[in-house]
Each structure stands twice: as C-alpha cells, then as structure tokens.
Amino acid sequence: MKFTIVLLACLFAIAFANEEADVIKEFREVNKEDFKYGYELTNKIRAFQEGHLEGEKTWLVKGEYEFVTKDGKHVKVTYTADDYGYHPKVEHSE
C-alpha cells in the first residue's frame, strides 16, 4: 500500500507542478483488495491508475499519465509496478 501512495503522490505532483488547472473528469474507487482512479485537467494532463492485491502483501499496479511540456511536446508514460519495482515506458511526440 505504501508504494501505491507514493505513486499517487507523484502523479498529483506532476499534475499541479505544471500550472493551475480545472478538473474536467475525476473518478476513484478504493476497496480493500483493489483500486482505480483517474482524472483529466484542462491543461491537458490526464492520469489513470488501477491495482489489485495479489496474495497478502503484493500490489500489482498499472497505469498511465500524459501531459504537454512547456515547449509543446506531448509525453505519455505507461507503467506497471510490482514487487520488482516500477516499470515505465515513456513516449514523446511533437
């Protein structure tokens, strides 16, 4: 669960470090053994994450977030996270 909290904090930091924005869409569902949440902001930041507990202590998480940099480049990160760490795939486009 600690790992999930860290990921959530990172995503929210990305969202609000860029600039102030209004929330267009937001949802969250948190249960004892699984969760999912997502949001989309007016400044083109979007994030989605879901995870489930496998066994008693192992969280398997997957998600994605995307944003536009100050110089106009679109960045999309898809990732998984498990006992072996955080596994991102980063895509850049103009």
TrEMBL record:
<protein>
    <submittedName>
        <fullName>Larval cuticle protein 9-like</fullName>
    </submittedName>
</protein>
<keyword id="KW-0193">Cuticle</keyword>
<keyword id="KW-0732">Signal</keyword>
<feature type="signal peptide">
    <location>
        <begin position="1"/>
        <end position="17"/>
    </location>
</feature>
<dbReference type="InterPro" id="IPR031311">
    <property type="entry name" value="CHIT_BIND_RR_consensus"/>
</dbReference>
<dbReference type="Pfam" id="PF00379">
    <property type="entry name" value="Chitin_bind_4"/>
</dbReference>
<dbReference type="InterPro" id="IPR000618">
    <property type="entry name" value="Insect_cuticle"/>
</dbReference>
